[in-house]
Amino acid sequence: MSTAVAGMSRNYWPFILPALIAVLGVIVFPWIFTLYMSVHDWNVSGTVTFVGFENYQKLFTDQRFYEAVGHTLYFTVLAVVFPVGLGLAAALTFHREFKGRGFLRGIFIMPMMATPVAVALVWTMMFHPQLGVLNYLLSLVGLPPASWVYNASTVIPTLVIVEIWHWTPLVMLIVLGGLANLPSEPYEAAEIDGATAFQKFRHITFPLILPNLMIALILRTIDALKAFDTIYVISQGGPGTASETMNIFLYLQAFAFFKLGYASAVVVIFFTVVILLSLLLLHVRQKTKWNV
Fold it and tell me: Which comes out higher in pLDDT, residue 6 or 230?
């Protein structure tokens, strides 16, 4: 029996080995190399000096890094709460039967088909203080022009508007999948008991689609934390450093200031935060499981 098992194991290796090599080359090795870089002073000319945890010590005394962390959290909270809330509302709306529902649903999901850079370029033109269509629309209703991404106090909420437009349809599709699989029996019982529409949503619909909402929440949180392309194209982290998130910060440290070791330390810290937050969200997701 043991000989047969050993023979089967040897037969599996030709199928496992390519995937194992790919994982080691694409995921494991880059992270090991990043850890190696993070404990070195890595000069762009090629000079490498071991500095131990000096990069991490500098990082935790860098006021600009703490500001980037604050901007990242601010952006993430807004870019998660609003798309998830609006996506839920859109899913409940499009779950109902009405004329033209299929056509309108198709129009609604079109933004998520565009690439982030293309979306950022279009919105950059719309945010222009003189030539942008948004300020023109404000003038039509008698409102003064807004500064949008050109003001430190409004730049992050403005960037969140782009995230809402781009990714609310994804949340809607995830929630619609849950709504399509809801059992009819609880609603029939609620109708007999005289439950209102809100009571049915509160006690039946919401608990049953909560796992789908958690999936949307996890995806949006991870995506918002690692957002880079949209922010960089629209604001480059400005004005000043008002929209400089952790991703923008580490990009500038690596490719503008050529502090490759220091930037690697940022990557390690950022990766650790993402992993811990993902594990927390997955734990919460497990708590919301249900069986029909």
Answer: 230
